[in-house]
Amino acid sequence: MKGQVQVNLPQRKRLAQAIGLALASSALPALAAEEAQQTLPAVKIESSVITPYKAEKASSPQYTQKLADTPKTITVVPEQVLRDQAVSSLRDALRNVSGITMQAGEGGAAAGDNLSIRGFDATNDLYVDGVRDIGAYSRDTFNLEQLEVTKGPSSTVSGRGSAGGSVNMVSKAAKFEDFKRGTVMVGNDNQLRATADINGVLSNNLAGRINIMTQDSGVPGRDVTENKGSGFAGALTYLLSEKTTLTGGISYLDQDNIPDGGVPLLTNANGERYLDKDTAENYYGVENRDYDKNEISTVKLAVDHRFNDTLSLRNQTFIGTTETSAAFTRPSFDSTAGNVRRGGVKGRDEDRDIISNQTTLRSDFSSGSVDHNLVTGIDITQEEYINYELRPTNDNPPNVDLYNPVTDDPYGGSITRAGGKRKGTYDAISLFVSDTLTFTPKWSVNLGVRVEDYEQEYSQDYSSTGRGGVITDPFKYKSSDTLISWNAAVTYKPVENGSIYLGVGNAQTPLGSNLTLSSDEQNLDAEEDQILELGTKWELFDAKVLANAALFRSVKTNAATNDVDNDDALVLDGEQVVQGIELGINGTITSKWAIIANYTYTDSEIKDSGDPAEVGVVIFNTPEHSASLWTTYEIDRAWQVGGGLQYIGEYENGDTTELDAVTLLNATASFQATDNVKLQLNANNLTDEKYLLKPRGSRGVPGPGKSVTLTASLEF
Fold first, then answer.
1. Which terminus, N or C, of the chain has the lesser number of Cβ atoms within 10 Å?
2. Residue ranges per structural domain of the chain
3. DSSP of 25-79
4. Which of 587, 584, 537, 715 lies closest to 50, judged by CA?
5. Collapsing DSSP states into helix, strand and coil, what is residue 91?
6. ∠ Cα 490 495 497 (to 5°)
7. Are the C-beta atoms of 548 and 67 separated by less than 8 Å?
8. How does pLDDT run across 541-578, given as a tens digit for each residue?
């Protein structure tokens, strides 16, 4: 049934066993804690400095220490940064984090947040409130409290995948305060967007919050392309007792966009593909055919209970559904005819559902002279993906001129469901434990392990024609395994405000874990990545600024590769190495001056492959240098100015495509007209650079051109 996850009898038994184990793991420590309550150490209450550009902690309950003492590179982009930049999409929010590269989707994927982190694909490593977001769409930020980017393998926290890192989007929660906020934004190229954020105290123990968004915007520097949609999110916080808090939330996002299939890349005399900047604004799709529609719904309920000052339990249930239908054009240049082929439609019609229940138990205690922050938990997740067979009729749009494409000609074809479908499921139960052992005020050790038992299935109930005209008959593939992920780190604090750490860890990624599976993949083990990271973090300017630096080396020792000597059979004989440097700083240097900035140097190489031609080659979509900077300064109580840049160094996107380096300059100025009204001007890509944001083979999606927006904000 659409929008529901079915649980068969064996799965129910596994769920019952897992829930029983979770309850037992919760109850036993609770009883032990009651007996040992008199000997447990008092909780150390640490004051924290609140600054809008610096977060104190990551949201995951598995990170028990503040960011300054967490032995891992984690960049948090707070809500205030997003407001100052007038950000509306995840893609724009991520420009604050270096080491991330956007990619174009494969096959029938048009729009969507496809990205890599530290050289490894992270499209399947996006999370909402700690739960994997398996939808393929462009995410909005109207209900975003903060954005957390974790670098390096981290399967112990997030589960399968995260070879290069992960992105967690933290939703807005209801607070015990009253405020009403609203914004209206207008800009060039028909940009129009409005939001409302209303929070209120409904009673002594109940708070509620509503967020609303609507937009109908063109994309600066891109013809025809349009982002249109609306969203609603509601949240409640209920204090059931002094020890128990219930939080809940729902969200709904409806998008009806005109997708951007990109522009054709030309080929020079050396056989290298490049972007003709005279075509960077052109649209080559079929206006009366192409569409990108998404409906995303989520429901969340969490219970937090504190048994005493040293023992607490959290349980969160999350249900998410994504319905997507899209049709778009993949243009390519026909050098013989001298025009652009648009070809048949590339489409998708799919549903993706997830249900997740996560239970974590935190216990703070001492064993002898060693203090422990112990977290144990269980994660039960079921994911389902259905892709419906599409049948295009009379779908043969004519070729168009490269420099003057006519795209609004009538479309007499149709795109309908043909009756068949592909279906993928991924069911997993994970047990995890992590502990921070503090031996002295200067020395601590962090240890973690996660055991994930999964079953995966992928099937197709109809025959289809693949590449080369090969007929693919109905099939069903299965895979199951137990993944063991781990991490360990030692931290030394030479002074109270500084730390130096050395960490190691791994990530396990089953092949086809994006809910698709091939006949080759079902017989292979998971890929494994290992990381070594040496880093340091310092709280400066009275703890209002956090600065970090790290040296890292990630190695994928059994990368999937095609064996050219064995009919291109898929084998795990590859080795890929990514190493480099991370630098970052964020916070408020003075009461008037705020900053968030980071830089990543990445050296990548394919060390071994089933294809000898790949050995020694850099990993695609991995620039050697990338950096971002954003800073604001309050001139007085009314005026604030700011600006920054994003730098993406040159990188390769394929054997014949190398992208030039690009620097994007941005600026802002705001005026607090009254106590309740603020006017804010934002200008992005001031020099109107023409560059590729999402390259893919013979085509690429250009980045947005110069954007100028004016936002009126009201707050009461």
1. N
2. 9-715
3. HHHHHHHHHHHTTTTSPPPPP-----BTTB-SS-S-TT--S-GGG-SS-EEEEEH
4. 587
5. helix
6. 90
7. no
8. 999 999 999 999 999 989 999 999 888 899 999 999 99
